[in-house]
Design brief:
This protein is an alpha+beta fold and 157 residues long. It contains three helices and ten strands, in the order H-E-E-E-E-E-E-E-E-H-E-E-H.
Length: 157
């Protein structure tokens, strides 16, 4: 009898502990800026946003190393198959969910990226959310082929 009670209590405790997992935390990870091969064209920032304990909206992405920064989304017309891109002024980040900003989908465009990120191999970015949380992220910088930035371009260009 005591053994049965012990087994039941142990099983109940295990279930309670399993349900007490960590609270999801709002974060931005895996950020990479792919430099445009043409200086006058925008570079593309891709990353993942992991939702926290409540729904929030991503309101803005900015960087002191870029002249202009815009969030964009790519859509495909179901009838024609035409692909279009449009700016987004905000985006819902559901609680506990992952939202990917990736090639062919949501992304951030950066115009006028200065030479510092190319020299350092990273760019400082700030993400502003509707709950007034600001997350600073150092995104890795790469050339369009995935290689490290060409420092000569930063010095000469």
């Amino acid at each position: 009898m005591n053994r049965r009670i012990f087994t039941l209590v142990t099983a109940a405790a295990a279930l309670l502990l399993a349900s007490c997992g960590p609270t999801p935390q709002l974060k931005v990870k895996e950020a990479v800026l792919t430099l445009s091969p043409v200086d006058s064209n925008p570079s593309a920032l891709h990353f993942n946003v992991y939702g926290g304990p409540e729904d929030v909206r991503l309101l803005r992405v900015s960087s002191p190393s870029a002249i202009r920064v815009e969030m964009h989304d790519v859509t495909v017309d179901a009838k024609t198959g035409a692909v279009s891109m449009a700016p987004m002024d905000r985006l819902l980040i559901p609680a506990g969910e992952k939202v990917a900003f990736k090639k062919g989908g949501k992304h951030v465009m950066m115009w006028g990226v200065n030479t510092i990120p190319r020299k350092l191999g990273e760019i400082e970015t700030e993400f502003l959310f509707s709950n007034n949380e600001r997350i600073l992220v150092k995104a890795r910088v790469q050339e369009i082929d995935g290689s490290d930035p060409d420092e000569k371009k930063a010095i000469d260009g």
